[in-house]
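Sanity check

After download, print the first record. It should look like this:
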Amino acid sequence: MKIQLIDESQFKQIKGIRQIIVHDHARKFASLDLDNLETLGLSWRSDLIEPLIMLSSDHSIAWIGVDQQLVALDLEQEKISVALPLNSNVVQILTSTSLTIVLTELELLLFNSDRSIRSIKGLPDIGSEILLQGTNLIVNLLEGNSLILDIETGIFKEPAMASFF
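Expected structure tokens:
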């Protein structure tokens, strides 16, 4: 996997079907080389944010997030299996054998291994980092607080935080 910043004219040379994340008012552009696939294109608007790429545990899916866009690319079938506009910027992507977790500034999105949505959870503050510890997902928030989500039940274990959800 190799991502390389390119200019707008180079981005426009990538076939439309291979432009997997496109922003109408893009200011940054990149090409993405996923080994056996044709070069893919990404465009986004933020000067400060770089694309995140995470492979599934079996290396069959590439999860790609930048700005407020998320894509899951099926590498075996060479097609997009998830394409979601989001309400806030992607902060982190984590994968395990049965789950993919996407942290945005305002939400947690949990996807099953078949890429169906398991749950979407709003956060009471801006999310900064997630850590997976067994069946617990630790969500660190910008202001220093943490939440613990049981990924099997989708319930936050912190009773004081339950009123936010």
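If your output differs, re-run the checksum step. Summary of this record's structure: The helical segments are 8-13.
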